[in-house]
Amino acid sequence: MTDRAMISLFAVWLIAAEPQAVSQVTLTRVDSLDRIYPDRTAPTAADDTPISIARGSAAAFQFAATSPRDLSCHITPGPIQRADGAPLTARIRTCRLLPVHVEGNTQGSLKNRPGGAVPEGWMKSLVRAAPFDTMEVLVETDEIELTAGRCHAMLLDVEVAADALPGLYQGSFELRSGQECVSVPFSLEVHKTVLATSYKLHSVHWFWPMPENLTSAEPPAWWSQRHWELICNSGRQLQRFGDDTVLTPLNHTLLTMLAETDAKLAAEITDSLIPSATEYSTDPAAYHAARRRVLAALDKAPGN
Predict the structure, then answer these.
(1) What is the predicted pLDDT for the residue at 11?
(2) What string of DSSP letters covers the chain?
C-alpha cells in the first residue's frame, strides 16, 4: 500500500469528540532533502524505496502535516520491525521543526540585502523568491500544535545500534489527538556493515556563540550558566550531524576591545574557547573548567 493510499484510509476514520466531526489531518512523508514551507503544500516523497543504512549510523525521515482546524497532537512512532517480528535496536527521536525567516535572496558573495536585486538568471537556481519562511530548526519533542491551514514539519531520527540485526524493517509514523490517529509507513534497509566510531577526516563548523543566535527565547547574558548550556546543546547537535571540530570566533564586544588593549589576556580567553563545544557536551569536567577559566579571565578585564 502506498503512502497516499494509507493516508486516505486513515483520514476516513479520524473521528473527533462528536461523531459528525472529522479532522481530515493530512500527513505525508517528505524526502529528507526537500524543504518544507509553512505556506505551501509539502512535496510527497517520490517513492517508497527503503532508506539504506549501515549499522552504527542514523536515518532521518521527514514528515509534513496540515489540518483544517487547530489541533494538538501527540507524535507517536510505531514499532520498527522486520517481517519475522524482530524489532530494530535503535534510539528513536521525534522532533518538530521551527521556521526560519529568509529576508532576502543572495545577490552575490556576502550580499543578501532584503529586497535587493538578484542577478539575471539566478532565480532559476534558488529555492524561491524571498522573503519566505522555511522549516529548519529541530526541537526534540513528542507534541506538536497544528495551526489551521499551515504546513507543519516533523522529523523521525533513527540511530541504528552497531549490533542491530541486518534486514528490511517496516515502521509507521503516527499523529494522535484523543482517539484520533493518522499514520504513514516508512521502511529502511539495515546492512551488515558497521560504521567506525572515529573518522580519519574531521568536519569543521564555524560556530557563532552570540546568545541571540542560540535560542528563540529571551537571550541570556554573555557567559551566564544558561549561555553555556545553550553552547553545549548546539555542540551536541553539531556533533550528531558530523561536525567534530567547532571553531568559535572571538567576536564578543568586550573581548574584542580587550584584544586591542591586552593581547596576552585576550590570548588566555581565546585559548579557553578553543576546545570545541562538543568536547564540553561529552566531558562535564572540561565544560566547567573552561567556564571557570573564561570567567576568571573576564574578572581581570579593565573595569571589572
Answers:
(1) 34
(2) --HHHHHHHHHTT-B-SSTT-B---EEEEE-TTS---TTSPPPPPS--PPEEEEETSEEEEEEEEE-SS-EEEEEEE---B-TTSPBP-EEEEEEEEEEEEE-----BTTB--TTPPPPTT-GGGSSSPSSEEEEEEEEE-SEEEEPTT--EEEEEEEEE-TTPPPEEEEEEEEEEETTEEEEEEEEEEEEEEE--SS-SS--EEE----HHHH-SSPPPPTTSHHHHHHHHHHHHHHHHTT--EEE-----HHHHHHHHH-HHHHHHHHHHH-S-HHHHHH-HHHHHHHHHHHHHHHHTSTT-
Domain that holds residue 176: 3-100+133-194
Give the pLDDT confidence of 268-291 residue by residue, as tens digits.
555 555 455 555 555 656 656 666
Indicate whether 186 pLDDT > 90.
yes
**Predicted confidence band of residue 237 (pLDDT cuts 50, 70, 90):** confident
Number of folded domains that form the chain:
2
Tell me, yes or no, whether 82 and 183 share the same domain: yes
Residues 162 and 72 in one domain: yes
Global pTM reads 0.72
